[in-house]
Amino acid sequence: MFTETLRALRPTAVLLLLVTLVTGLLYPAAIAGIAQVVLPVQANGSILSDAHGNPIGSALIAQNFTGPRYLHPRPSAAGKDGYDASSSSATNLAPGSKDLRDAIAKRVTTARAEGMTGDLPADLVTTSASGLDPDLSPEAAFLQAPRIAKARGLDVAKVKSLIAEQTEQPVLGIIGEPHVNVLLFNRQLDMLSATTSGK
Amino acid sequence: MTLTGWSMILLFTVLIIALAKPAGDWMYALYSRKEMPLGFLERGFYKLAGIDPTAEQSWVGYAVSLMVFNLGGIALLFAILKLQGMLPMNPQGFGGMETLLAFNTAVSFVTNTNWQNYGGESALSNLSQMAGLTVQNFLSAAVGMAVAFAFIRGFARKQASGIGNFWVDVTRATLYLLLPISIVLALAYVVMGVPQTFGPSVVATTMEGAKQTIAVGPVASQLAIKMLGTNGGGFFNANSAHPFENPTALSNFLQMITIFVLGAGLTLTFGKAVGNIRQGWAILAAMMLLFLVGVAVAYGAEAAGNPIHHALGVAGGNMEGKEVRFGIAATALFAVVTTATSCGAVIGMHDSFTAIGGLVPMFNMQLGELVIGGVGSGLYAVLIYCILAVFIAGLMVGRTPEYVGKKIEGREMKLAVIAIAVPPLAILGLTAVACVTGAGLAGPAAKGAHGFSEILYAFSSAAANNGSAFGGLSGNTPFYNLLLALDMFVGRFGVILPVLAIAGGLAAKRRVPEGPGSFPTTGLLWIGLLAAIIVIVGGLTFLPALALGPIADQAQVAAGTLL
Fold this sequence. Notes:
Chain A is mainly alpha-helical.
């Protein structure tokens, strides 16, 4: 067994080195090279910019909205204050956790104070797995439409039709769930307000 | 549960069955040493490494090569993690990893586990992610496949002294299977929105004026092999729940397909190699049977939701720790897929699943991940159970059992029992240690039965080389870093070594032609027997522990008990 161990040393060293070179450096570099040239937007994180070219966030990453004029994303457990895109995380609270129940109860109370009635969609009052979930279910978005419409002086029907328009449907009708991207929706909302007030 | 949810699950199942044959054929070409395109690359590797590719190794030689290679891999990865602060490609300027954490991480990635006691985006440089972790994502999968190939040769060869050449098997699996498919997948993921950049984090000013630092990196290249190699170690802390690591429902579907495809294909590689592909289909059928039962239970539990939250006026299924774009059906399916194999990537937090929804992934790992299983490791694990199943069938009729033309005798049975008994011993033994020590009890965040589940899940995941977690457990302590590393090591090599020993013994035997008295190992009777034995052995071993954890947890939640 000793000679076999000795004989394995050189192949071990050389293979580790070669595979590190090929799969650890060349492969990611080649993918990055192609991606940066052909698909620079996606390759750099689908960053959105304002009119001056300053980044305002990523189309794929949740950011917080608290004002009544905007659609609010799901609650977040990423980082200390939530929505920390350099520290994705979930609560990892157990189904029987008192902390989890209390947190949900508090969010339900807030929703009721805003005038939301009936059973609430679960995504509206629970935190996501990444803490950066960029989406809401259409149901959770529709419930916020009256608040947004009131704050912006818009027709509720108009806000609701924008939600319906911005809802992405499952691929082939079965892969995925209908969802609204909160950040993209809010950008549309600002554009809608701009054109409406311009009239 | 919804019709669309089940349609997606059935589409997934059909695609896996359809892809198994081409994948199995591809791997058969590697197994049988068929000359591949760009053969000069392979020969160049052998020349530099001083390997004679035509030399056959005995099982001992094969095992020694494997152990030296893996220990070397652990040492190299440990060094990279420890020294990353002084190495290039570190745009966020992270320092070296703490020693025990680096040790745990090195063992974790070399054993194909990818248990992570750190958050990737806040601890690792790009160099560590690529030249450290990605490399072992390739190699640990290639090693698993090599062991599967060696085991297949044990059944397929007659009166042979060798079981192949470890170096050749690892090189070919890496160069001609894992790497080319990963290149295609990585580019597909970029198209879907997965970043691939060496730049630093993006600092954005949000629409409401807050500052948001957005971590990016070479994610796509790591993601591709993380799934294909059933590794599961995330670039980001949230793993494949992170929108950058899984931007759409379609990228998610592709990830699930690639977790399963090689493991499913290997069953047919086996069938082809032993001269009867129906032997492979029979194994795949037993696997898919167990898989669909697991999906039905997990999906049912998650869709039913949490009565404690329903009482607050919240509708529908359990969405805590899940992402809207995937929804409940895909998250439940993914949880089963990732634990049926040794992947361990997650798109939802298993700790926040309902108790029964969390029981399914835990039980999958405790069975030894042989429902499809890890790349290579799934096949050798299920073949051990095939040996056990023919042995039990042989006892019933009083004949020496045989499997695909090889007589199963005392030596094979002793070694098979070691391979079956070692992981449960590690899981239950170490869980017990954690439950009676202060350092162990300091780990779980949850109280009561669910806290016990967090510990049991961790040791099940590590021994099965899965790597998913009930994330509430604080694993980055000296106690857990060391014990989980031990658990991963024993769970990996405590199975591989007996498997190679069986392979060596079987290869030396004659092949006996199938006679009228042979127990048929194709057909419905065999599929049912194999599935039943897997569930009974796993159930007998783990039911008491599961009763203390998820089952007690479910009863408490149903009664509305809050902890």
